Automatic annotation (TrEMBL):
Binding locations of S-adenosyl-L-methionine: G81, W83, D100, D116, D140
All residue ranges annotated as the Ribosomal RNA methyltransferase FtsJ domain in the record: 49-223
Disordered: region residues: 1-30
Family affiliation: Belongs to the class I-like SAM-binding methyltransferase superfamily. RNA methyltransferase RlmE family.
Major site of localization recorded for this protein: cytoplasm
Encoding gene, per UniProt annotation: rlmE
Organism of origin: Pacificimonas pallii
InterPro entries: RNA_methyltr_RlmE (IPR050082), RNA_MeTrfase_FtsJ_dom (IPR002877), rRNA-MeTfrase_E (IPR015507)
Protein name as it appears in the record: Ribosomal RNA large subunit methyltransferase E
Biased composition (Basic residues): 16-25
EC code: 2.1.1.166
Pfam families associated with the record: FtsJ
Upper classification of the organism: Bacteria, Pseudomonadati, Pseudomonadota, Alphaproteobacteria, Sphingomonadales
UniProt-annotated location(s): Cytoplasm
Residues of the active site: K180 (proton acceptor)
Recorded GO MF terms: methyltransferase activity
Length: 226
């Protein structure tokens, strides 16, 4: 007879199987099952990264050499800190600041702000802490989902537009910008704006991004400056 308690077992194929819990919803059970079976989650734990998202930046860097030679980096929507860890690993001497509404445990060599990037004071605080203009702006910001696809897209793209504006105002010539977008990529007007200000603009879905996820990334390199 089942005790009704939550638990984890092994399936006949050797995969970790989540047992049904009395208070766990079907959605949360599926999420936990996916986490337990996800090789990127396991690799993140093994390598000391705070999240599987670290591998997204590693893969983007492998494809676009984003971190090569960078001296100052801004990470928008930085929680829980996986991308900051990657930058510290690949470019230990680079200046690095991150910001998020959520708590982020301290990371040696990085300045982290717990505040809303939409706060008027946020951009100035980031640049002041960085000690100069960045040559790479990363944005993994995304709005909390509502379940309504169009609404979620518009809210997230609003954050992307704010991140683009920050990059345009602060990047050094030749710098790069990376931002999370949703299925379909950045809007045509935004892509056109990026192409006016950067030498190369591409959309990419790194292998570490779940196949069922709607997220993509826009990568803009070679900022033209003023």
């Amino acid at each position: 007879m089942s005790s009704g308690k939550s638990g984890i077992g092994k399936s006949g194929q050797g995969k970790t199987r989540v047992k049904t819990a009395r208070r766990r919803t079907a959605q949360s059970t599926r999420w936990l099952q996916r986490q337990l079976d996800d090789p990127y989650v396991k690799a993140a734990k093994a390598q000391g990264f705070r999240s599987r998202a670290a591998f997204k930046l590693l893969e983007l860097d492998e494809k676009f050499n984003l971190l090569r030679g960078v001296k100052r980096v801004v990470d928008l929507g930085a929680a829980p800190g996986g991308w900051i860890q990657v930058v510290r690993q690949k470019r230990p001497g680079a200046g690095l600041v991150g910001i998020d509404l959520l708590d982020i445990d301290p990371i040696e060599g990085a300045t982290i702000f717990k505040m809303d990037f939409l706060d008027d004071a946020a951009p100035g605080k980031l640049i002041e802490a960085l000690g100069g203009q960045p040559d790479l702006v990363l944005s993994d910001m995304a709005a909390n989902t509502t379940g309504h696809r169009q609404t979620d897209h518009l809210r997230t793209m609003g954050l992307v537009e704010v991140a683009v504006d920050f990059a345009h105002r602060n990047l050094i010539p030749g710098g790069s910008f990376v931002a999370k977008v949703l299925a379909g990529g950045a809007d045509a007007a935004l892509v056109a704006e990026l192409k006016r200000n950067f030498a190369a603009v591409k959309h990419v879905k790194p292998p570490a991004s779940r196949k069922g996820s709607s997220e993509w990334y826009v990568v803009a390199q070679g900022f033209k400056g003023e």
